[in-house]
Amino acid sequence: MRKGEPLPWIVSDSLWERIEPLLPKVQRRTRHPGRKRLDDRKALCGILFVLYTAIPWEFLPQELGFGSGMTCWRRLRDWHQAGVWNRLHQLLLAELHAAGRLDWSKAVIDSSHVRALKGGPKTGPSPVDRAKPGSKHHVIAEGHGIPLALSLTGGNRNDGTQLMPLIKAIPPVRGRRGRPRKRPACLYADRGYDHDLYRRQVWHVGIRPHIARRGTPHGSGLGIHRWVIERTIALLHWFRRLRIRWEIRDDIHEAFMTLAAAIICWRRLVR
């Protein structure tokens, strides 16, 4: 963070203008209303503070004014179940598309392994970490590295199993006249996706596959296109809460992943 820049977990007015209409409205009870509900914007700042710093929920500093960690956790859960983060991600993709900032000429897909120290759903023995429990972050990004869709699986799942689910998970992106854009022209992937069945499936949905083949020397030339997904995954893991999976519940970790993808889109939009 550069000197003079605002703290990244402080929600700016322009970002809040986009998020606030997406949040479900909660009516306060007229009879026995109890304690006043924490302001949604402050709760979101608390969620972002945990996402950026990876601090345990129970250690969220009260002097920040973001409420208790448990309150922020419940808001993250409720808003994820209401689809807020997915809609925010889709909204920001539409704005990027309207501004001509999305490269639909190609897409790139890859995955990254993270430790899952507490286990839970969508974990498995990692083949790269002495069979310790782990999870995989699967990401597909457009030509500039902006994430289009993400998924979470166990650390022992083959990358190819998420190829078509991720392609199908790309939302219809509006922002320009005509039909929403959903498919890139071609797809680049490494040897982990090398199978003729996957190539046929990608061709079947109208996308030209460029997948490196096993047993061939490195230097296929695909690296000049695939480096963007490595940068995207590095940006995701810049959020410290995503470097290690601390959540037992997979939906909470997926909520963090989708929120982080939306923040990446927001940064690209404003910069």
Automatic annotation (TrEMBL):
Domain Insertion element IS402-like residue range list: 11-89
InterPro entries named among the record's database cross-references: IS402-like_dom, Transposase_11
Domain (Transposase IS4-like) ranges: 108-264
Domain of life: Bacteria
Protein name: IS5 family transposase
Native source organism of the sequence: Actinomadura luzonensis
